[in-house]
Here is the input.
Amino acid sequence: MNLRILAIVVAVSVIAFSYVPAFSQIAPEYFYDSIAVNNLKTFIGNDGLAGHNPYTFEGGMEFPKHSGNVTMFTEGFVLIGHVNSQLRSCGSWYWQSLQRGNILSPYSAADTNDAKYHVYKIKKMTAQEYQQLTVEEQQRLRSDFVNWPVESSGGFIDRNSDGMYNPDFNAWLQNQGSSDQPIFEGDEMLWYVANDLNEKKLARLFNSPPTSIEYQVSVWGYNDTPLLSNTLFTRYRMIHKGIHDVKDAYFGKFCDPDIGDSMDDFLGYDSTFFAAYTYNRQEIDSYYGIPPASAHVLVQGPVIPATGIREPATFMGKYREAYENIDVAGYTFYIWNTEEYRSPALGTTFGANMVYNNSRGKRWNGEPYLDPISGDSTTYPISGNPLTGDGWLDRDIWETRDRTYYFASGPFDFAPGDTQEVIYAYTVAQGVDRLNSLELVLQNASQLRSIFRERHVTSTTAPETPSSFALGQNYPNPVSDGRTVIPIELPQGRSSILRVYDILGKLVYEQAVSGRSSISLDMKSLSIPPGMYKYSLISASRTATRTMMVIQ
Here is the structure.
């Protein structure tokens, strides 16, 4: 959403739809920084701000960096759940409800005026690259490296094994294996700590009392492959430092995307790859020319005790056999100045209830989404296939109005003393036309969960190698008599999940599998009607997907 539209909304639409309050001023405790390690440049604030330019109050996800063109106006997140039957919420949805600093004890926050609670930055670089930076940048990176809050940010590499953080920045520049250093992700990373104990800021969001949740947020990127050079990762690590259980909680990602012009975007959701995507309605965008496409991808959801349905969880860089990660529970889109697809009413508890309904894949009033193509209810609206024109698509709704989206994972219970961790990737691709851009960004989305696990998750049990993980083409294909066989190959003793989705991304079948074998399916007994389907083999570190056709 651009600044001109923002002003109109503030003037005439806040009461009707509570759509967008203004980024009208920088709060006294506010501090922000940018990350520009690859083709993307964006801004991060230690009050929850992301993807928004605090200098110009306009869109802040620049692609390519230094081009002046952006792919989003802003993004945010929400943690929402029940405390003693009262709905509690915190996050960033145009308004930022966090304040910087950690939590010292239940409902007691650190001093927000303490300069140590700023956004920290670290990056991989040589001594020569360091010398090419401005004096201000050099001082900033040196100071952050030496004063990095290792106790609360994930620890440090103790090169001399003395149990103390003794960094030597000059030595590290010459040889990054020679000095203690913070543990960090990617080629460049931003990190901050914040909390939900500012009642005034919480009231502006969804009028919720504080719960005493500490947020440790990391944003990082790489510049070593074409895919990762167009991708940024964000990790929300939450520590419950309060005294009350948060029941049936959800954690969700909000985004106001703008692929160049803010009024010509289409949205969609791919449930196979957990990707909320944006592409352009027009072949030529007034800013980009050939427009790119973008997507948020859930690469790691909240953890719950293992049910046996999913693979072991990934959590804080490890596989956790006794737990599993929750995937996306619901996707919702909003269209400016419409009643049916209205945005949450900010500053009200009614708005919190709207978000909670959306988190469960419901409309704002709790009613189900009805797919106008199939007539069925769905928790993933507009999850058709724009590349083939099949299913419920954004184009079936409105032509030119600004759009936003939100998708959430849950439910989970969040007890005092517990830690939760949710990680998203944001990726952009630009092809030869608007739909080719979408095709490329969905190809990115299909790989990001596996790439994340390969680079960030360690385990006493080695992940599968390509030679021991395979999903074959079903036979016969097309399926003509109701029966088909799907070949699979897995390492001995490892298990995975086989999932079958219809063309709209709706899960129609799920089965746990293990070992080297094949899976026989009887489509008739499973009540799977004729049509096109995707089937995926999903393990803790790899995913493979194929398509099949059922004709009778």
In short: Residues 1-30, 462-467 have pLDDT under 50 and may be disordered. The two ends are 47 Å apart (CA to CA). The longest helix spans residues 434-456. The chain has two domains: 3-114+191-456, 466-550.
